[in-house]
Amino acid sequence: MSDSLPPADLHGHLQALRPTLLRLAQLQLRNAAWAEDAVSETMLAALEGASRFAGQSQLKTWVVGILKHKVLDQLRLRQREVAYDTDDDGEVLEDLIFVPDGHFRAMPQTWDAPADALQQRQFFEVLEACMDALPGQIGRVFLMREWLELDTDAICQELRISSTNVWTMLHRARMRLRECLQLNWFGTPAT
Asked: For the chain: N or C, fewer Cβ within 10 A?
């Protein structure tokens, strides 16, 4: 463990990270009890593995890395308990955004300085709210791909769905996030 973080301080830093870890776990697991289990296991693993923390990254980065593995463990453990959520309104959303030949009804608005927007805490709050609004299975697939960085085959195996279904859900998630950010961050509807 880094000399700059004595064991007593580690406990305090982990407690300060707990709300963030819980939010991340709830976004992926969509179950408060499962998220709490994953975060508790993460905190325990961080305390037990403190000697392996070399200080080459931020403590938060290291702990979030542990959380990713604990979330995957929870998904495997609970995979039979997760209900399959179908998304019947995906076609309606696509009809609102696209014309029959596949082109956008209205071109997406140019977002001024997206790198600056990403730096703002408020942007992440809006993004998190938009991700919370994704339907269960679509949000889960999106987070597995983008947050847990799983490849398509792993997602297919974990959720027992086809790769076509994964790509469709990812497309729908991105379209919903685009629309939500357009309305709630950039201030104008995309259509």
From this structure: C
pTM: 0.50
Residue 188 has what pLDDT?
65
CB within 8 Å of 151: residues ≥ 6 apart: none
Q: What average pLDDT score do residues 128-137 get?
A: 88
Q: What is the pLDDT of residues 146-189, one digit of tens each?
A: 888 889 998 998 889 999 999 999 999 999 999 998 888 887 66
The tokens for 149 are 């960085």
Contact 29, 74 (CB under 8 A): yes
- Domains and their CATH numbers in the chain: 7-78 (1.10.1740), 90-184 (1.10.10.10)
26, two tokens: 């709830």
